Amino acid sequence: MPQSPDALDAVAVRTWCSLALEALGRERAAIDAINVYPVADGDTGTNLYLTVESAAAAVEAVFAAHETGSTVPGPADAVRAMAHGALIGARGNSGTILAQLLRGMAGVLAESGDAAHLRRALTEAAAAARLAVAHPVEGTVLTVATAAAEAAGSAPDGARLRDVLDAAYEGARTALAATPGQLAVLGRAGVVDAGGQGLVTVLGALLEAAGGLPGERAVPAAPDVLPLTGDCAEADPEEGGPAFEVIYLLEAPDEAVARLRGRLDALGDSLVVVGGDGLWNVHVHVDDAGAAVEAGVEAGRPYRIRITHFAADRVRAGKDPVQRAVVAVVPGDGLSELCAEAGATTVLARPGEPPASGELVDAIRRAHAREVVLLPNDAQLRHTAAAAAEQARAEGVRVALVPTRAAVQGIAALAVHEPGRSFDEDVVAMTAAAGATRYAELAVAERQSWTMAGICQAGDILGLIDGDVAVIGTDVPGTARTVLDRMLSAGGELVTLVLGQDVPDALADELGEHVREGYLAVDTVVYRGGRQAAPLLIGVE
Q1: What mean pLDDT is predicted for residues 149-176?
Q2: Does the predicted TM-score (pTM) go above 0.85?
Q3: How is the beta sheet containing 398-401 ordered, strand by strand?
Q4: What angle, rounded to 10 degrees, do the helices at 161-178 and 141-153 form?
């Protein structure tokens, strides 16, 4: 059990994030199942988990940066990393509000993590969250946050950190139990607010990190909990409500965001805008997703845009699961479309932003199948994919992980996928196809460094075959030809080329001609990968 500190230090913040992630992992499905407000989309527990997962990863990155020395990060570094990680990884209404709560706390705890500052941190957090929601409603996570702050403030003068946290936790639990009487939709369903339940879980993890034992005092169960779902923030759910959830990160000045709030509020509901210092997380439910994104473009630079079609989720939720599905991680939007056309559920791995295990679990759930073949398509995602597969198996889904190490191996596996076969036969065929595909990619060297092919300089074109640098060149076409010759020297029947967004079609024509002239029995197929980290991906099978 963690010792009781007098103030939260960086290690305590790290422990808090770890315990919160573990607790939300256990309770995610239960929180999803009680969520009725305002949209029945069944992902509030998942959204909270993904948000905290991003916060925990940011804190771990700060600790990793100090590993070479003998010191640990300062508490200010840890709490700011936690808040930033939550902001950039926030998902859904619940996750976005939680990110603002953590940001509000971090602004005070960066000064000190003692009991007095914790009281003020909880107060600042609750106030910041209310300001972030366009139309606050009582009986939601906002009510629970306010109750936690008020309870912490009522702790006796001179109270220890743990005593203040204990008061906040008990105040949050009491407020959560009262939410069905404050919000009619909760009362009709016989459930407590799901976002509030998630906040109680996070506060419980904080109390445990400070030496408390919240696990011994379970939150009172709501009567006759129904398997209904949704996020929390504003108006009553209606069957004819907005069709889309739009979320994006936005780089913009404060004055532009003030105008953006008004614009988005007129377009839809469930509007939450959190952040500051030029970086914001925007969440809104609208019928016109394009207009919501365009409003962000007018305000600044939106990116990491996520659009969810509620109607599609509702239709899928009402159907029996299909027998089998494929979930594939893809490095660019072009391949995402290609794999989706082949029937796969895709997870986009943006450059420098590998998906977390929670996103893979979320995709497995969206596939809505009894059996799932998971294609990570990246050697670095092996452990992440294994964790996601284990979680999905615990939820009753039969999952097979095909250890694809590159997108071209995933394409080869998907090409032989046959739902009519038995599950084991299908997995064996897909694994064999992936294993028979050698893979390569081109990359631009960022600095001078040693490689297996010699010393490269910044700006050199590197040809990586099966993950190792095999060729160092000065231009993309020449390096690509050399890589192809190396790979085809061992034989092959089909070359797959995946071109990045800025690579001209002429390169594909040139490489195709090179293959035809030198290797008469080898065919070439070309795909557009869209925005991806590598200018060119190559597969030979």
Answers
A1: 89
A2: no
A3: 345-348, 322-330, 369-375, 398-401
A4: 140
